[in-house]
């Protein structure tokens, strides 16, 4: 059964052999393909189609797999996932079981960090079991917007210590942990976090000082945060580029959502918030971003909604990379 998502994929060879094997796509519930909880075999068919279309990577969303339950790996569910992924032509990464509220996958909250670490250990076990190269972790948030500086300092120290411990385990299993910068959305603005500032995320990674920990640069999040906090978007990206080990690529208009609880349809209509649009649909200077030298050669994961336009997104991204190569 074809999903028809890649029906408009350019014919093989139309990129002149320039399709890099480092470009991937996300497979999770909100991207428009409800494949994770439903049927792993259907998900595998989708991944095979993505590989045929020219993608080299896929990032699975931990929240949608239904493998980590109660902070533990559900064994029969993991076995079914591994069976479905056996021989998959794409290289894999895994997004940890975060939730937009910050209630899961959040080591900055010192009150719940030990329980959160158990959940991340379970995610790491899943990542290792499926051969994922990267486990993405969102920079943590404090539970209270009015937490003082001492609480933030203590939370960041707790996060560093726990990620360092996790990295010992992940490194032994061949999995890199990538700490992702945050967008100025409701989950962050209603609490307190360092994660909107690229320099602070980079500093946190550098202070962890572990070969199995890098930064996940979310380009769309950074564009919104740069406007909200008034920092130089491209300058900040160039500054953190040496420690970026993973990239999430998507588009938006750099406009804060004036009414964050509005429906996704309203926000998209107005061009506000973290829209996760296909590259080229918004106003982010993505070509300039991709001209940056990322010395760790990170995978570029197109993390977008509008799943029917994956082929267009791949073509747009490849053309930008081609322009960089020619310059």
Sequence of strands across the biggest β-sheet: 1-2-5-6-7-8-9-10
Instruction: Kindly state the percentage of residues in helix.
Output: 40-55%
Gyration radius, in Å: 19 Å
Q: List low-pLDDT spans.
A: 10-19
Please trace the helix and strand order, writing H or E for each element.
EHEHEEHEHEHEHHEHHEHHEH
Summarize the biggest pleated sheet: 8 strands, parallel, barrel
Assembly classification: single chain
Category by helix and strand content:
alpha/beta
Mean pLDDT across all amino acids: 88
Shape: globular
Percentage of β-strand residues:
5-15%
**How many distinct helices?**
12
Can you describe this structure?
This protein is an alpha/beta fold and 327 residues long. Helices cover 41% and strands 14% of the residues. It is built from 12 helices and 10 strands. A hairpin with a 2-residue loop joins strand 3 and strand 4 (72-73). The strands form 2 sheets. The chain has an 8-stranded parallel β-barrel, surrounded by 6 helices. A two-stranded antiparallel sheet has the order 3-4.
């Amino acid at each position: 059964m074809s999903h028809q998502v890649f029906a408009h994929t350019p014919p093989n060879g139309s990129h002149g052999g320039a399709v890099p094997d480092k470009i991937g796509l996300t497979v999770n519930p909100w991207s428009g393909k409800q494949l994770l909880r439903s049927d792993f075999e259907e998900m595998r068919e989708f991944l095979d189609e993505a590989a045929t279309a020219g993608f080299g990577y896929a990032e699975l969303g931990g929240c949608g797999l239904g493998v980590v339950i109660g902070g533990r790996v559900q064994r029969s569910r993991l076995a079914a996932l591994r069976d479905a992924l056996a021989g998959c032509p794409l290289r894999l990464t895994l997004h940890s079981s975060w939730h937009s509220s910050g209630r899961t996958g959040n080591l900055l909250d010192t009150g719940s960090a030990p329980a959160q670490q158990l959940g991340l250990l379970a995610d790491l076990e899943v990542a290792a079991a499926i051969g994922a190269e990267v486990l993405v972790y969102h920079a943590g948030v404090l539970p209270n917007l009015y937490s003082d500086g001492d609480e933030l300092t203590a939370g960041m120290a707790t996060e560093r210590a726990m990620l360092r411990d996790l990295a010992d385990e992940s490194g032994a299993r061949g999995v890199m942990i990538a700490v992702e910068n945050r967008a100025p959305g409701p989950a962050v603005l209603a609490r307190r976090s360092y994660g909107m500032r690229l320099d602070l995320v980079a500093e946190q990674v550098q202070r962890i000082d572990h070969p199995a920990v890098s930064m996940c640069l979310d380009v769309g999040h950074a564009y919104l945060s740069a406007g909200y906090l008034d920092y130089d978007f491209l300058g900040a990206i160039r500054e953190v580029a040496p420690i970026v080990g993973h990239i999430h690529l998507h588009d938006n208009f750099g406009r804060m959502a004036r009414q964050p609880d509005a429906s996704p349809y309203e926000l998209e209509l107005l061009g506000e918030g973290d829209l996760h649009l296909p590259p080229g649909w918004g106003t982010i200077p993505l070509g300039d971003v991709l001209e940056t030298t990322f010395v760790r050669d990170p995978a570029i994961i197109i993390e977008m909604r509008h799943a029917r336009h994956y082929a267009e997104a791949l073509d747009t991204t490849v053309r930008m990379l081609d322009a960089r190569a020619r310059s």
